[in-house]
Amino acid sequence: MSASEIVNKVWNYAHVLRDDGVGYGDYVEQITYLIFLKMADEREQTGQQIKVPDDFTWNHLVKLDGDDLELQYRHTLENLGKQGGMLGTIFRKAQNKIQDPAKLERLIKMIEKEQWSTLPADVKGDIYEGLLERNAQDVKGGAGQYFTPRPLIQTMVEVMQPKPTDTVADPACGTGGFLLAAHDYMAKHATSKKEQRHLKEHALHGNDIVDSVVRLCAMNLYLHGIGGDECPISANDALAKEVGDDRVELVLANPPFGKKSSITVWRKKMAISNNSKKK
């Protein structure tokens, strides 16, 4: 089954849940939680280290039905949100939005049929990007604030030409389009193992003011094979934190709109690096 076929299959079920009051954005979040747990289970079976606590693994969910399933799923989300690193970022403030146990079971069985870890990173990424794009198209209330058109992003990255040794940041990262495009461009020029490791674990940094969007971005990068034990994405207001030592070679961003902060930011001075990007 191709990436587009999987996207259509998974997205079609969103319409079923829509009748129960589950919005498209909520649906994508629930898909995020479940696919992550499924991939963690697959990787554990192949001997790869996974840090999901034993009581809250995918294996527990697939064995249950009815109210027991809904209760286990709710406890899983609550407990994983208390963890650190990538796990804590993806499940931060997670809640179950699928109240009908039968429909939750059907969704779990649909995800269970696919072997997500065996799919190439670009295919998994295409599937998830497809879901994000569908959500941006179908949700009218401000979805555009976190989904910049990918052709525009691609053009900007090609103009800036990031090097594989650069550190790239997006202070309003949304679902991670700029970071992923930068990663793909830099990966073509990363020839040494040192550069490849830097690209995977240290090259990309992003933050966003919206918790749910940070979750989507973290999962997007994770499915593309980006990130180490610590998540490169954080939930905070880029305008409300000091620059400090967190300097980068390149900033790629679509200036935020559609979201107002309750914080008033005052700056006596602003540190600006003189190491500007040159063609």
TrEMBL record:
Q: Does the keyword S-adenosyl-L-methionine apply?
A: yes
Question: Can you name one GO molecular function term for this protein?
Answer: DNA binding
Name the GO terms of the biological process aspect: DNA restriction-modification system; methylation
Could you list this entry's UniProt keywords, alphabetically sorted: Methyltransferase, Restriction system, S-adenosyl-L-methionine, Transferase
**Reaction equations catalysed:** a 2'-deoxyadenosine in DNA + S-adenosyl-L-methionine = an N(6)-methyl-2'-deoxyadenosine in DNA + S-adenosyl-L-homocysteine + H(+)
Keyword Kinase in record: no
Q: What Pfam families would the database entry show?
A: HsdM_N, N6_Mtase
Q: Where's the N6 adenine-specific DNA methyltransferase N-terminal domain?
A: 7-111
EC code? 2.1.1.72
Entry-linked Gene3D superfamilies = 1.20.1260.30, Vaccinia Virus protein VP39 (3.40.50.150)
In this chain the DNA methylase adenine-specific domain maps to 122-260
Give the matching InterPro entries. D12N6_MeTrfase_N (IPR022749), DNA_Adenine_Mtase (IPR051537), DNA_methylase_A-5 (IPR003356), SAM-dependent_MTases_sf (IPR029063), T1MK-like_N_sf (IPR038333)
Identification of the protein by name: site-specific DNA-methyltransferase (adenine-specific)
Q: Which organism is it from?
A: hydrothermal vent metagenome
